[in-house]
């Protein structure tokens, strides 16, 4: 339930409602906007009927049942869009953010050359996997702590904040000490013990959508983070599994618009995993921005044919720069009745 206080509600009236919410068995989450205060009653153990009765309390304008099971990520709880600060970079603000880098950190040379090139091309954050979730146990699993040291070194040299994936609760501490943002990969979106631990870290979280997760399940995964105390969450659409076989996944762009409609959290798009095809990164990125994405995360490698993971979907340094330039090219003109002489 969300309790909307009237614009002239007094501090005493607001406090009374907060106290009543607690007495009814819920936790109050208070959002003070410039005009009015909203109190979200979170939890499942309390009495909903008692909350509904708060419509009669002084200063209360309305008590609205939340249709969606996610509460803190909902726009009903917070109308203003959340901006997530990662070092100097703001995700969810006026400017589109481009994060780029290799699927896996492979060597100092590979990471440095990629970081310098993506920065020159206009990217403002670096990605790079240290711990890789691979379908086969025989594939390259990542360089682990060696990669974390390289990421920190490159961050210091270039100023680019870095994001890297955390797969296990055991690695949270060491990754938090080296990276600016922690990625929850698609395969771990519903790893609830990982989410509960990440809710307690100071670092922002990039939460990828699971390959077969509904938008509701994705937002509920984000709810774990917010409910546990971490408000700095960015959602990432990275394609879902469908019957399509020509592409690695099906990039669900409508879900980006929907997630932005249902939630105040920023949403970015990963066209690399979303399509699995380097030839589609440009068009899919342009479409993502057109539908309202707050940013992009793209795999880039100095020599994709030699990449230890995801080479087929990685752009080389030059291709990435060309693709970035193409992002701001205008869309095709709309045919109008006048144009055909009607
Ligand atoms: C990645 O970013 O390299 C990755 C493994 O992504 P996802 O979890 O979306 O598959
Ligand atoms: Mn990858």
Structural features, described:
The N and C termini lie far apart (54 Å). Helix 10 (281-290) packs parallel to helix 11 (317-327). The protein has helices spanning 11-23, 48-52, 108-121, 145-158, 172-178, 192-198, 215-227, 253-262, 271-275, 281-290, 317-327; strands at residues 2-5, 27-32, 37-42, 60-64, 84-86, 89-91, 97-101, 125-127, 162-165, 181-184, 205-208, 233-237, 267-269, 295-299. The protein has eleven helices and 14 strands. By secondary structure, the chain is an alpha/beta fold. The chain binds phosphoenolpyruvate and manganese (II) ion. Manganese (II) ion (MN) binds at residues 103, 273, 299, 309-310.
Quick structural gist:
This protein has 342 residues and is of the alpha/beta class.
Properties at a glance:
single chain, 342 residues, alpha/beta, 8-stranded parallel beta barrel, 4-stranded antiparallel beta sheet, 14 strands, globular, binds phosphoenolpyruvate, binds manganese (II) ion
**What does the average pLDDT come to?**
95
Low-confidence sequence ranges: none
Strand fraction: 15-25%
The outline comes out as globular
Continuous helix count: 11
The radius of gyration over CA amounts to: 22 Å
How many angstroms does the end-to-end distance come to?
54 Å
């Amino acid at each position: 339930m969300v309790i909307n206080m009237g614009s002239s509600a007094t501090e005493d009236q607001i406090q009374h409602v907060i106290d009543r919410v607690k007495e009814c068995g819920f936790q109050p989450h208070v959002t003070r906007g410039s005009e009015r205060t909203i109190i979200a009653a979170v939890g499942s153990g309390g009495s909903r009927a008692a909350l509904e009765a708060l419509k009669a309390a002084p200063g209360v304008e309305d008590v609205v049942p939340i249709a969606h099971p996610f509460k803190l990520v909902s726009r009903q709880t917070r109308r203003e869009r959340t901006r997530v600060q990662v070092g100097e970079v703001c995700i969810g603000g006026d400017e589109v953010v481009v994060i780029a880098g290799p699927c896996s950190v492979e060597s100092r040379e590979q990471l440095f050359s990629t970081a310098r090139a993506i920065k020159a091309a206009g990217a403002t954050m670096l990605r790079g996997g240290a711990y890789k979730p691979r379908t086969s146990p025989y594939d390259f699993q990542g360089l682990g702590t060696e990669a974390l040291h390289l990421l920190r070194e490159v961050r210091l040299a270039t100023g680019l904040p870095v994001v890297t994936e955390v797969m296990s609760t055991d690695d949270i501490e060491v990754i938090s000490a080296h990276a600016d943002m922690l990625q929850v990969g698609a395969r771990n979106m519903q790893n609830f013990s990982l989410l509960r631990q990440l809710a307690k870290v100071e670092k922002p979280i990039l939460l990828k959508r699971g390959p077969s997760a509904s938008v509701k399940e994705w937002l509920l995964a984000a709810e774990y983070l917010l409910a546990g105390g971490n408000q700095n969450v960015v959602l990432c659409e990275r394609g879902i599994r469908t019957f399509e076989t020509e592409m690695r996944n099906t990039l669900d762009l409508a879900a980006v618009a929907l997630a932005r409609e249902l939630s105040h959290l920023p949403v970015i798009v990963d066209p690399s995993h979303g399509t699995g095809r380097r030839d589609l990164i440009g068009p899919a990125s342009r479409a993502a921005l057109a539908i309202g994405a707050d940013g992009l995360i793209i795999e880039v490698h100095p020599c994709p044919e030699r990449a230890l993971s995801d080479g087929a979907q990685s752009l080389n340094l030059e291709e990435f720069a060309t693709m970035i330039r193409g992002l701001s090219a205008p869309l095709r003109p709309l045919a109008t009745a006048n144009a055909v002489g009607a």
